[in-house]
Specification:
By secondary structure, this protein is α+β, with helices and mostly antiparallel strands. Helix content is 42%, strand content 18%. A 4-stranded antiparallel β-sheet has the order 1-2-3-4, covered by helices on one side.
Length: 137
């Protein structure tokens, strides 16, 4: 049985509309589902920022013999949408980072040295140098 092709202009337009609808449907199926995918992306950005911050703090410590609470002094540039709370002292530092794409109050924290975690963190690292993230991670 041979495939019959439409012979009129309207039939061709109907066939083209069906083809476009099928391609659009397949494209829609390929899109990521739900906010969970985006939430993972925001957490990954926050974790990456904390790792970069840790490296910059160690460089700063080697040059100045102390840690800092000034991101500008570290020449730290966080990812788009990331907000950082940083505390530094002679013998350690701690940081809590969140992203405007995460739900209110969620984020990740990290500390080094004697400063320990910030008060009010929704989650706390179990040891120095570890990154701990709140709900969803």
């Amino acid at each position: 049985m041979a495939l019959e092709l439409p012979s009129t202009g309207w039939a061709w337009m109907r066939a083209a509309a069906v083809a476009v609808a099928l391609v659009a449907g397949l494209a829609w199926l390929a899109l990521p589902r739900g906010g969970a995918s985006y939430e993972k992306m925001y957490y990954a950005a926050v974790e990456s920022d904390l790792k970069n911050l840790a490296t910059l703090q160690e460089i700063y410590f080697r040059e100045h013999g102390t840690y800092t609470d000034d991101p500008q002094a570290l020449r730290f540039s966080p990812s788009v949408g990331t907000q950082l709370q940083l505390r530094g002292a002679t013998n350690g530092w701690s940081a809590w980072a969140t992203n405007r794409g995460l739900p209110e109050g969620e984020g990740c924290g990290m500390y080094h040295g004697a400063t320990g975690p910030h008060e009010g963190w929704t989650t706390r690292p179990s040891r120095e140098g570890q990154i701990a993230c709140s709900a969803g991670r």
